Amino acid sequence: MFILFTLAFLLADLFVQTRASLFSALLVMVVLSLVLWIMRKNRGPFFYMVLAFVFGLAWTTWYAYSLLAWQLPRDCEGTPLLVTGYIASLPEKDQWQQRFVFSMQNLRCQHYFNAHSTHIRLSWRNNNMLLHVGDEWQLWVKLKRIHSTQNPGAFDFEAWALQKGLRANGYVITNKDNKLIAQHRFLYPINHVREILQERILAQLPHSKTAPWLLALMIGERNNIASEDWQVLRNTGTNHLMAIAGLHIGMLAGFVHMLVSWLWRRFPSLLLHVPANQAGASVALMVAIIYSALAGFSLPTERACLMLLVFSAALLSRKKLNPWHVWSLALLVVLLFNPLSVLAESFWLSFCTIALIIYGMRGRLAPQGIWWHWGRVQWVIGFGLIPISLALFHECSLVSFAANSIAIPWLGFLILPFCLLADLVILISPNMAAWMLWLADKSLTGLWVVLSWFSKQDFSIWSQVIPNHFILFFSVIAVLLLLLPAGLPGRWLGIVWILPLLLFRFDKPKQGDVWLSLLDVGQGLAVVVQTKTHLLVYDAGPKFNENFDMGESVVLPYLHTQGIKKIDMLVVSHGDNDHIGGAAALQRALPIAALRTSVPDKLPSPQTTYCLAGMSWEWDQVRFSFLYPTLEDIDQGNDSSCVLLIEQHTQRILLTGDIEKLAETNLLSRVPEKLSADILIAPHHGSKTSGQRKFIYAVHPAYVLYATGYRNRYRFPHQSVVDTYEEIGSKQLETAKSGAVIFKLSRVIKEPALYRITNKRYWFDE
């Protein structure tokens, strides 16, 4: 019954997270409360499940409302604000800035004053001042609401921020009134200890490629790790190993329990007071909690500590517990503590992993041998997590069983012990800690060679999208059936249940039709054009640093949701970062048959050539033509952008890159008859340096689309450009407001799907 109660609570939580408004959740709660009142005299299992569902609705809705209670006023966005509060996280420092979570206690904005305590995320640029956890500061800042790009298949930063309790982000501005008010070393004691350890560890850390992972294993900090290193872990299914998580807590607790129990038995007088198993369990629990604190009590470590706590309590009380009850209790406590945890990927990976171990390892007759006690666990986890991995990441590792079978004991015996010992002695003997870190790093370097080899195999990754909840449900049922004990009837029916996933075919445009997707990449451009059998990508969004670009974080996930395995043509309009930045990620991830650009020297490959006026081709009865530039127009920056015309049935689409008035004038003089279009991607994001009246009237689009970032510093689109399009009755859409804009064009133009609208959630900024 308790398991059903917890699952009903979880379902209610999930129901709230799919709502566009919290009010709808309240309505359902009221209706179900009436049902409970009618059923009050017949309190069977169904009654308590409905009760749990209502409780889950009420708790989750209240929690979400409490976080959303404060919103940065519109008038205060982008203006200098005076805030006071405390640094609430370990500052992250790179060569340009420091970033930290700020516990804001009050805010002053013109005539507005607010003393509501909330968390915001700040960056302090070009600042060499030492910032510490618990410092109380008065700062002048510029803030904006939490607002992220919204695209199919991509990461939702707004959901992540809400789950973390962040209500605004911004940066500190230079002002003589910025000052440190006081230092509070005991305000955030856990993070303060972590900060001290981080400083000592960084001073002794070896200078190697793998050294940053040691910091992750010791205090859970994974900043400044290269994206290619993350890719190695994703390809091998070992990304759960390189941070303090449930596995590490379990290994440490098991070792401590074994050691303390063995030592306890050496002293008979101690056994007269406390049994060895109980003593070992108590010490193991305390050590596990301390190690979890080093990770800042991340979600996986919370789950592990909760389960250890329940098991230890059962051992001390000499009661035998059902593992499912322990799992359910840990799940319920996590949801009560933060019901928005379901928005985190780690929540699902953590609890699904433990559920699979319980399900796949219990109820078997006389299990024996190394395979059962070690290999089968890896098989159950690796195979069982396939549906969840595909749903969350659109890919799963096919070498995870082999990679984890090697990596887990290697980590547990040859790396983690040295890291833990370094944690213990670094405050006492930095030289001894440095020696231990050197040993751990050498061992990790050897493991990294093995993982890198696995990750480079062509078969290491299976990319597949689970397109809807029905196929996810069928896939989970298939896995559960196939993991049943041998000999049970119906086990092999799992093969039938997995067929929908394997046989599913994505929708494609019909012959002569075009699907146009303007992706939301912030202040940048990325367009995907699909015909029946071909795909073209026009620009790939910006690159922000070595570890983050919109090609990898937005364009590729979108292509995965469409089942795309290759790109027939990549067009990079010109060399500005907001258009070319994500191209390298696409080149690494997918085969590209042809690459056309005005800057071939920046994208050298055998497939790269100029995009020159007069080049044309036809795919699936859809005609593509470059209208601009000519060789004479190359090396003119924005005015060298590739201009692409797409003609389909009776509709025309014009993609213009960042052309400005010079290029517009050239087009008007050379090919005025080809400029008319039904859909126009506004030149240069709607800048006033483009969009001259003659050009706009020549194109006369039914739809004009602006690829813009939220509150971008250029203030695109410019009002004069917007007014001109209004004069001719064009419907104007901005990605900053609509999210991804998706047209499915046949013989008529239908209203586009606006992702921020069709996928609306209650936490979206209005």
Secondary structure: elements and pairs:
Elements: H1 2-17, H2 22-38, H3 45-68, E1 80-87, E2 92-93, E3 97-109, E4 112-114, E5 118-125, E6 135-145, H4 157-164, E7 166-172, E8 179-183, H5 189-204, H6 211-219, H7 227-236, H8 246-265, H9 268-271, H10 276-294, H11 299-316, H12 323-337, H13 345-361, H14 369-384, H15 386-393, E9 395-397, H16 400-414, H17 416-425, H18 430-455, E10 461-463, H19 469-482, H20 494-503, E11 514-518, E12 526-530, E13 535-540, E14 543-545, E15 548-549, H21 550-561, E16 567-572, H22 577-580, H23 583-589, E17 592-597, E18 608-610, E19 616-619, E20 622-628, E21 643-648, E22 651-655, H24 661-670, E23 679-681, H25 693-699, E24 703-706, H26 719-727, E25 731-734, H27 735-738, E26 741-745, E27 753-754, H28 755-758
Parallel strand pairs: 5-7, 13-16, 16-17, 17-18, 22-23, 23-24, 24-25
Antiparallel strand pairs: 1-3, 1-6, 2-3, 3-4, 3-5, 6-7, 6-8, 9-10, 11-12, 11-26, 12-13, 14-15, 19-20, 20-21, 21-22, 26-27
